[in-house]
Design goal:
Blueprint lengths: L20 H33 L12 H7 L1 H21 L5 H33 L6 H6 L2 H8 L4 H28 L6 H16 L2 H4 L19 H6 L3 H13 L12 H11 L17 E7 L18 H7 L3 E7 L5 H10 L13 H5 L4 H7 L3 E6 L8 H6 L5 E3 L17 H11 L7 E6 L20 H23 L8 E7 L16 H5 E7 L8 E3 L3 E2 L3 H8 L21 E6 L2 E6 L2 E6 L4 E5 L5 H20 L1
Parallel strand pairs: 1-5, 1-6, 2-8, 2-9, 3-4, 3-5
Antiparallel strand pairs: 2-7, 6-7, 10-11, 11-12, 12-13
Length: 644
């Protein structure tokens, strides 16, 4: 009787190769298409989550634009999807002739990494948009270089619900992803010999087509953030952006140094003529504010100090009562606008008179920052003893290198304070630093120029006292933080005004930048100008005037020439600012805004996107003249940035 034998086939044995190179290529392309469809749907859902989370920030009159954001954003979503597909295309290309188990593992590892990264970026963007009012950009990685400060900033974000969302969204996304790709992934078979070469070449050629959606189409200009701007609604325009795509775009823009000016819209001679016309009164006779020519000067840079918290400037009542009280004892500039919207931009505008430029912070470019003039240098050259106080980490955003270039005789940072005083996530609270300054003034040579940068009103808005306003939401914490800094500064001024050196001292109080906080009432519109409007107050015994308001429109870059002119010192190196204390009326303010600018003068204001050529918002009195002035200032200041 014949004996039939059988050979057991191991469960992991590979199936025989039977399909052609063309079929293998088609299967891989079909898998990529499934992946791309998954991501397109995922990004649309993420956009819906963005609007649901921040719905109260969309003014009632602008909510009709939101549905179109989903349509306009598809182009950027497709570009982001194509970037993700490229990674999987490379993984599949490398495994054309590999064992199926290896192909699947590599594919799943790359896919899981992509899902994790995109989910983290999406939720980070969701959380930071509230306090920042902009999509998360390349500055995120700058903050991560100083983890303590990054953690402090993140503390103002609704971390608990976002973590909870992460724990749900990440496994859910992975489950849906595997469901949509499982069949196509397991249908892949390895190719051998000539078929592997042919299949690999065909699949490689098909993958090159991903370059088209990556650049946003076959048009001359590649996709950029301006491409998805379609309406007068800032929220609708920002919502159309893809968080992951914008993070990559802005990071690459910040990493590479521009070689050419992308904002060169005017012939150079015409640009220069417009800029010169705006600064024609730079040497006009100043209005004298000081009783003596060389007073001591204390410059207080108040973190995120917005006009929206100053009652005398139409802001919320009872937030800064001490500042309001002191406005009647000094000179208030009520029409000043911050040049930037982050500290790295704000400090440079105040100390170097250099305006913000789109998508850059010159302070984080050490070589360029070192070429800037600084108030500290000018004051030290005039015989002033100079010092700088900050209760936080000086390394943050390259501040230390920038400050040291300012020729300060003494720089005091976090490390100068005892450990038990470092009771803020940022470092040392404002009242402690102000007290140290007050104690050290008697030992400082005269005349002195001292800069102090506060930090307690930076997110997470924690203060070492019971809250004045009830509530735990971010706007209320913001108000309480400013109320605390206001009380600390008021106590400092009250005490300083009793000292012997007060009569020969000028104190200048100004913000580094404004803030989108506190949130406007639900459904109401807030302009870019509201977020950049900041107070500036001059007080001290060295002043000739009291209870005076200067209405001339200006920007934070105007501080150096205004102060130096009052001191009788040259200010020609601070070419982007003007003396606000001239007999001439009017004035203007300018600041960069994304890929464009905002320009304000007595006739009106305009917010313009230079890349797309679109006016995003304007007042009734604004028109071509304001756009031309802003275009010239953007082109000229960026050219100066490139030349540093």
């Amino acid at each position: 009787m014949p004996v039939h034998s059988s050979i057991a086939v191991p469960a992991h044995a590979e199936p025989p190769v039977s399909e052609s190179w063309l079929a293998g290529s088609r299967r891989r392309v079909a898998l990529l298409l499934r992946v791309m469809l998954f991501w397109m749907l995922w990004f649309s859902a993420a956009r819906g989550l963005f609007f649901a989370w921040h719905w109260k920030l969309v003014p009632l009159a602008e909510r009709r634009y939101v549905p179109r954001s989903f349509i306009e954003g598809l182009r950027m979503d497709l570009s982001a999807t194509a970037y993700l597909a490229v990674m999987l295309w490379l993984a599949l290309l490398l495994t054309v002739a590999a064992r199926p188990t290896l192909s699947r593992r590599l594919f799943q590892a790359v896919s899981l990494g992509a899902i994790t990264f995109v989910t983290l970026v999406t939720l980070t963007d969701l959380g930071t948009f509230g306090p920042w009012r902009q999509r998360v950009d390349g500055s995120l990685f700058t903050y991560l270089q100083t983890p303590r400060e990054a953690y402090a900033s993140a503390s103002s974000v609704a971390v608990t619900p976002l973590v909870g969302m992460l724990l749900v969204l990440l496994p859910l996304s992975w489950w849906l992803y595997r469901r949509s790709t499982h069949a196509a992934l397991h249908a892949l078979q390895p190719l051998r010999g000539v078929r592997a070469l042919a299949g690999g070449a065909a699949f490689a050629m098909s993958g090159l087509l991903l370059a088209i959606p990556i650049r946003g189409g076959v048009q001359w200009t590649p996709l950029n953030e301006s491409t998805v701007m379609f309406s007068p609604s800032t929220m609708a325009n920002l919502g159309a952006q893809n968080a992951g795509w914008y993070l990559l775009y802005s990071t690459l823009a910040q990493q590479k140094e521009q070689a050419t000016n992308p904002y060169a819209a005017l012939p150079p001679a015409e640009m220069q003529a417009v800029v010169d016309s705006l600064y024609h009164d730079a040497d006009a006779a100043p209005l004298p504010l000081l009783r003596l020519s060389r007073p001591n000067v204390i410059l207080v840079i108040w973190e995120s100090f917005t006009a929206k918290v100053v009652a005398r400037m139409g802001g919320a009542p009872d937030v800064t009562p001490q500042f309001d009280r002191w406005t009647h004892r000094g000179v208030l500039f009520d029409s000043v606008f911050a040049s930037g919207d982050r500290s790295a931009q704000g400090l440079v505008s105040l100390l170097s008179g250099f305006p913000s430029v789109p998508n850059e912070a010159i302070m984080t470019r050490p070589r360029k920052a070192a070429a800037l003039p600084q108030l500290g240098q000018a004051m030290r050259a005039a015989g002033y003893h100079t010092s700088y106080y900050y209760g936080g980490e000086l390394a943050f955003a390259n501040m230390k290198a920038y400050v040291l270039n300012g020729d300060y005789d003494r720089v005091t940072g976090l490390e100068a304070f005892a450990g038990d005083l470092r009771n803020s996530k940022w470092g040392v609270h404002d009242h402690v630093v102000l007290r140290r300054l007050l104690d050290e003034v008697p030992t400082v040579p005269r005349p002195f120029f001292t800069t102090i940068f506060t930090l307690s009103s930076h997110e997470p808005f924690e203060v070492p006292e019971p809250p004045y306003f009830a509530g735990a939401d971010v706007s209320t914490r913001f108000l309480n933080a400013h109320h605390y800094t206001d009380a600390s500064l008021g106590a400092f001024l009250d005490s300083a005004s009793t000292r012997s050196w007060w009569d020969s001292t000028l104190v200048v109080i100004i913000a580094d930048h404004g803030s989108p906080l506190p949130d406007p009432p639900a459904g109401t519109a807030e302009t870019v100008l509201d977020r950049h409007h900041i107070p500036m107050l001059w007080v001290g015994g060295a002043l000739r005037l009291r209870d005076t308001v200067v209405h001339r429109i200006g920007a934070s870059v105007d501080l150096p020439p205004t102060l130096l002119t009052q001191l009788g010192l040259p200010h020609h190196r601070f070419r982007w600012g003007r003396n606000l204390l001239t007999a001439q009326s009017g004035g203007f303010a300018y600041f960069a805004q994304h890929d464009g600018f905002a320009y304000i003068d007595q006739r009106g204001w305009v917010v313009h996107d230079e890349r797309s050529g679109r006016t995003l918002a304007r007042s009734d009195g604004a028109g071509a003249s304001q756009r031309r002035s802003g275009t010239a200032l953007l082109q000229g200041s960026f050219a100066d940035y490139l030349a540093r």
